[in-house]
Write a structure and sequence with these properties.
alpha/beta; 3-stranded mixed beta sheet; 11 helices; 35% helix; globular; binds NADP nicotinamide-adenine-dinucleotide phosphate; oxidoreductase activity; NmrA-like domain-containing protein; oxidoreductase; NADP; NAD(P)-bd_dom_sf
């Protein structure tokens, strides 16, 4: 039977392209719906015109999930800590397949799962594992895609200024990074819903990436595509850690998370090690060079 899918966090940076991908594949699903706070439903008027339903309600209320098999959470950092309660509500409402808001690095790696930035994702994974044990038939999928290829030049997180051709990064030139372009991430995500689970399997990881390299290689590639030489400075990540701790001590959680964010990718914490699942899907993802050419040529 065609699955019914409910999307949480549909207005975000990942949610918008994911909803667009679902629109393209609407006929493969019994229902595709966005769960929205009634006050924010206006954000989804275009999606509604294109056949996506809008369910008005709270993601903490089990009634919001009734009639849906698969729930995808694209919660941003501020809502991430609420995912265990969303999962409980989704299960109580009858959903039996949950995609938590992962869509990044493989946080199970040593030195990554302990890192502050990923705390709420780790808590969510622990909760999913526990609920899969006590809920017959409940399954969950972790989408591990590395960094968004379009985001690796983000000024705040990685210290790139692509117009000035400078990088000031808290990290190391030989640190590695895995990336996937957003258009490919949403294709993998929608297609993954149709990949079968093995008998008795409750946790499934989908490990995909469009490219993988060191920061030194990435900068060289950017220089080639932009035809410009970069002024590159790598700063010891301990300096960012000091700022993170100072923010924690003054109770500024937002700054604490942002400073933690500055050393995620450039210190080698955004990688998706193999074995990869790319070959389970019928397309070839964009390489990082292709993404750079799309973003920076001309
Ligand atoms: N790998 C990468 O490079 C990369 C980059 C970016 C994101 N990601 C991952 O992708 C996932 C989605 O991130 P995103 O950037 O799309 O997130 P986002 O744009 O910050 O927000 C996603 C959604 O969260 C909702 N939200 C935020 N605060 C909320 C609250 N207090 N209560 C209810 N809803 C709230 C927002 O809804 P409203 O604003 O409509 O309320 C929005 O639709 C996350 O897991 C993130 O870690 C990965």
């Amino acid at each position: 039977m065609a699955p019914s899918v409910l999307i949480i966090g549909a207005s975000g940076s990942l949610g918008r392209p994911l909803v667009a991908e679902f629109q393209k594949h609407k006929s493969r699903f019994a229902r595709v719906a966005i769960l929205s706070d009634p006050a924010k439903a206006h954000k989804f008027a275009d999606a509604q015109k294109n056949g996506i339903e809008v369910v008005l309600g709270s993601f903490l209320d089990f009634k919001s999930y009734q009639g849906f098999d698969v729930v995808l959470s694209l919660a941003g950092n501020a809502a991430m800590r609420l995912q265990p309660a969303m999962i409980d509500a989704a299960i109580a409402g009858g959903a039996r397949h949950f995609y938590p808001s992962e869509f990044g690095t493989d946080i199970s790696q040593d030195g990554v799962w302990q890192f502050r930035y990923f705390r709420d994702k780790v808590v969510t994974r622990d909760h999913l594992r526990a609920r899969a044990k006590d809920t017959p038939g409940f399954r969950y999928t972790l989408m591990l895609v590395g960094g968004f290829s379009e985001w690796v030049y983000s000024g705040f997180f990685t210290g790139f200024a692509t117009e000035k051709h400078t990088v000031e990064a808290y990290g190391y030139p030989d640190a590695e990074i895995s990336v996937t372009a957003l258009n490919d991430i949403v294709r993998y995500t929608v297609d993954s819903i149709f990949l079968p689970f093995q008998e008795g399997q409750s946790l499934r990881e989908i490990r995909v990436r469009g490219d993988h390299m060191t920061w030194a290689q990435l900068i060289a590639l950017l220089e080639e595509v932009q035809g410009a030489k970069y002024k590159v400075t790598f700063i010891d990540p301990k300096e960012a850690a000091k700022e993170q701790e100072a923010a924690r001590q003054r109770g500024d959680e937002e700054a604490e998370i942002l400073w933690a964010g500055k050393t995620i990718a450039t210190a080698g914490r955004v990688t998706v090690p193999g074995p990869l699942d790319n070959d389970k899907f019928g397309f070839t993802p964009e390489t990082l060079k292709q993404t750079m050419q799309r973003l920076f040529k001309n």
